[in-house]
Amino acid sequence: xxxxxxxxAQSHIHHGFLLGLQLMVxxxxxxxxxxxxxxxxFRRQHHEKFLSSFAKLGLSTEPDAVAxxxxxxxxxxxxxxxxxxxxxxxxxxxxxxxxxxxxxHGATLCGLPDGVxxxxxxxxxAHNGVSLNNPRLGFVCVSEDMTGEFGFCGYFKEYDHDLTxxxxxxxxxxxxxxxxxxxxxxxAPAGDWNEERLAKANRNYALEYIRNGLGExxxxxxxxxxxxxxxKAARLIGLxxxxxxxxxxxxxxxxxxxxxxxxxxxxxxxxxxxxxxxGDHTQQVQLEQRGLRIVRGIDGDERAxxxxxxxxxxxGTLRSQRLILNLEMEQIExxxxxxxxxxxxx
Length: 346
What we know:
Blueprint: H1 3-29, H2 31-54, H3 64-78, E1 83-89, E2 92-97, H4 115-123, H5 128-131, E3 137-143, E4 153-158, E5 169-171, H6 195-221, H7 223-249, H8 256-268, E6 273-276, E7 284-290, H9 300-319, E8 325-333, E9 336-343
Parallel strand pairs: 3-5
Antiparallel strand pairs: 1-2, 2-4, 3-4, 6-7, 7-9, 8-9
Helix pairs in contact: 1-2, 1-6, 1-7, 1-8, 2-4, 2-6, 6-7, 7-9
């Protein structure tokens, strides 16, 4: 069982959690709330990520429209999302997301309302000019994901006049991007982007959507309803994804101790320290996890909510095993959890 496999398994299950949470919110609370949530999530992601990584990707000297298009190709590529770049001029540069879409992977695409895409475009793409202090820069969408065209595609354009807030996102259906040229695709500055670092980037990419998504959903629905919806989504994803993550880890589905080894391996995939405590492992197994990357930098009620939903995710994986297992979580120090695993009995 390799550390790299555990990192990949964490990426896989948290990606699944994001997909399940989107479907849970869309099906229970409807299109309008889902669009509001996507707007809030992507605006928060934008404020946290856009400018902080802009210079790191070597884009500060590029014209704004070109730099924004290249940014979305490079940043998404690091997260494992295929995006293509085509520039017409210094003032007009295209991006085209290719399928399968990471954000709406698999059949998830069919379960989300059209407004989901418009929420994230307003939340992130329409705000690029604001963040760059360029009031003439906007985004024009020519094709959307859920509308059955040819996928999310559009261009950043610098106009010859300042844009009002409702002009920063525009639509021009029917336009097509210029031909793709492999030689024009941007390449990230040289660095140590080895296999392990890319795997960690993919994991962190999924984690950030969960961390920020739960926080923004709480602002819209309140703590009680968010905990109910997100906790149920987490439990279901744990049940559904146990077999796939166990296969990634080459884990054994059998005894109480096998279940503990699976959970320990998954938690180590977060980069946290996990210790199997001594004792009679025929009745219960306890693990101590230190580090808690999942809530790093998050405090108060938002932290408590995230941990409660995370508990449901891992409970789902253990209850999906042949020996149906129970899982209790106790916070014994600010950055330490104790997990207690026991078997269910008739």
